[in-house]
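User: Run a structure prediction on this.
Assistant: Running it now.
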Amino acid sequence: MSHPLYIAFIWHQHQPLYKSPGSGVSLSPSQQYRLPWVRLHGTKDYLDLVLLLERYPKLHQTVNLVPSLILQLEDYIAGTAFDPYLTASLTPDEQLTQQQREFIIQHFFDANHHTLIDPHPRYANLYQQRQEKGQAWCLANWELPDYSDLLAWHNLAWIDPLFWDDLEIAAWLKQGRNFTLSDRQRIYSKQREILSRIIPQHRKMQEAGQLEVTTTPYTHPILPLLADTNSGRVAVPNMTLPEQRFQWAEDIPRHLRKAWNFYKDRFGQIPRGLWPSEQSVSPAVLPYIINQGFKWICSDEAVLGWTLKHFFHRDGAGNVEQPELLYQPYRLQTAEGDLSIVFRDHRLSDLIGFTYSAMPAKQAAADLVGHLQAIAKMQRDSQSEQPWLVTIALDGENCWEFYPQDGKPFLEALYQSLSDEPHLKLVTVSEFLEEFPATATIPGEQLHSGSWVDGNFTTWIGDRAKNRAWDYLTAARVMLASHPEATEENNPEAWEALYAAEGSDWFWWFGAGHSSNQDAIFDRLFREHLFGIYKALNEPVPPYLKQPVENHQAQANHAPQGFIHPVIDGRGDEQDWDKAGRIEIGGARGTMHNSSVIQRLWYGVDHLNFYLRLDFKSGVAPGRDLPAELNLLWFYPEKTMVNSPVPLADVPDAAPLNYLFHHLLEVNLLTQSIQFREAGDNHQWQPRFSRAQVALNNCLELAVPWADLQVPPDYPLRLILVLADEGRFSNYLPENALIPIEVP
């Protein structure tokens, strides 16, 4: 029997608890919520995703709604939630304080400017003034209409394009400027109207059978770390752990029970699937999930790989080798019973999450469908009796900010293609499991303890700041345990504060790995939730909770913090490079120190390209202040291939300059022309075609397609930059090191 290729999309919708329980200071209602992202993502991302899907009834999908997100949506719908952005938006222009004006200028452009600001001329004009003339100039020169327009546009731009045919919204978009307080009040009413439709629409589509809605532990905690912070050492044996071991497995059934009951109340039925927070699993958490009644969970291919002791290699096109291992559900066997688990295709999920936004919509959709068709062909060739299930699971909100029109053209092209393709069938996970129960088994104790991030927990524990936060949480949890009279029934404030503090997001932003311009607010919120535990117990608050967990000054050198998609125009757009790796050059000691014409180096990747940026001192001219030739040389550690030395005169015989390299890209900084070469026999270099892009304006930006290098996904490579004058070595960077890169 020939099966179609079954595909399960799972969209994960989540926001942490921005609602502040108070920090010992009297809070006005306008400060109840520290950040606006529930309200803004609510008007841009949660409703349109399922409304678009509804237009393609053959396509079934799964959406995960985290309880902490729904709670906050309900506060906004009721009109009881106010964040500083909303309070400013509803303040009469003439009553805006100096502090609010500074806040507006600093934060009301918190959006991807390519997609949310630039398409709106008035909003773009205000943004350009802020960028080019600076915040101080805006503060000194802007008049009340400028503030009023910015307040309006910040809220309008986050309304999804799917709703632009609404008569009021269309009128505001056409109006463009001279917005009044009354306009802003009506925009807020429109936001609440959109928010109020989210849960009913999901419930309606679930009852119609096109959608499956799943849930997550109550406030999105990392369950394996609640069970035991030592589980971090399963994947990273030498991990530095917090001083105090956190072992409160009894909190796991509390989170699961609250999520279960919350779901039943909103959706009129019991949930079948559970999205474990950050797809984090371990043997210790399985009994609690099974006992609560959940039928299936999802995790990442890295967790399956560790569990099976199998690395999922991919071919040159990015498709999984031995696909039958990944594209099937498994049955986890425990003493408490069995639980089904599906593992997502990490690369296909990441393509949607991080790369397709940089491609034309139809091309991106065709690329994804092409991958799925290739998998379907592998399934047919395998002549497998068992159907395959490809799971694509990802964040359902943050990626769309980087897509034109919030991803609407991409999703429409994708959904139309999938509707027309007879060999591909979109299903909910429960639909598939009911028709084709898992036959492959994994003993529960064999399941790897890890998450979707590299199959480990280092994103949430293991560095100094993350561990300090765990120690603060442990002390508060011990304090709550010392008050057995404080039950959830008679002291809900203490328990709600604990659940909020156990959420994963605070640990995500602490320490190494991730950063945003709101790190200090996340730090404050975490400490406020802990503060709430002590306050509810009438216990003295430890003095350390009044100080930040860490210093939030911008780091100098750091590794990439996510995928990037810069526009290669030589302008160094700050948003384009905010997640790139960074190496300070100008202030370093050694070869570059004397002239310091190159101040810093930025680097990053997506699934299409490797990206490089060099920042120069103001007024620097190649050929005068800087050598005219830049050579990028790629070194492949521990890989057997033909290699050649740096083809320049006077190269010092010292590592890493005396390494042998396999690829060379020469960039002429005067003409911005390129020559690409590959190492040949007898230490020669052979010319090759390249689609690399280069642009030099106030900085140098470069994009090199992975297709040029012809290396498969997950391949390690290293890069060095060598400056030359007419073929003679001049300098190199970074000093005494290679830039480490991994192909996504």
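The chain has 25 helices and 22 strands.
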